[in-house]
């Protein structure tokens, strides 16, 4: 199935400008164009866009995402390197989640203290 940039933007929740930017930055190197120069996206392209969106939303830089794309284009022999990058990013996210969970707990305790539900504010 083929999609236009507008349909893809709507489906993944990004603007057409962002999709063009990702393509310009080399994050979407395989986007095909029809005879009129209109971008035609395939399901595989949408998978990559969703992965890029996920990585961006979780703080990965465009440069690091670009490196993953480059490695992907080199072939399957780069899978260990790509996994290493993703595992490192995942560890960072897990550390951030632990910090956020501790912070939420501290804030909850302060709210309980304000509400008079506890005499101590941890």
UniProtKB/TrEMBL annotation:
It holds the Pfam family MerR_1. InterPro entries: DNA-bd_dom_put_sf, MerR-type_HTH_dom, MerR_fam. Residues 2-71 form the HTH merR-type domain. The keyword Lipid biosynthesis does not apply. SUPFAM superfamilies: Putative DNA-binding domain (SSF46955). One of its GO terms (molecular function) is DNA binding. It comes from the Bacteria. Keywords: Coiled coil, DNA-binding, Repressor, Transcription, Transcription regulation. Residues 83-110 form a coiled coil. This is MerR family transcriptional regulator. It comes from Holtiella tumoricola.
């Amino acid at each position: 199935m083929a999609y236009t940039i507008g349909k893809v933007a709507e489906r993944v929740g990004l603007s057409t400008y962002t999709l063009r930017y990702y393509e310009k930055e080399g994050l979407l190197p395989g986007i095909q164009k029809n005879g009129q120069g209109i971008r035609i996206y395939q399901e595989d392209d949408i998978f990559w866009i969703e992965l890029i969106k996920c990585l961006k939303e979780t703080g990965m830089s465009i440069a690091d995402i670009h490196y993953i794309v480059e490695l992907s284009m080199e072939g399957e022999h780069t899978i260990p390197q790509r996994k290493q990058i993703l595992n490192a990013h995942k560890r960072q996210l897990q550390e951030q989640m632990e910090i956020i969970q501790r912070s939420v707990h501290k804030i909850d305790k302060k709210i309980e203290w304000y509400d008079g539900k506890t005499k101590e504010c941890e």
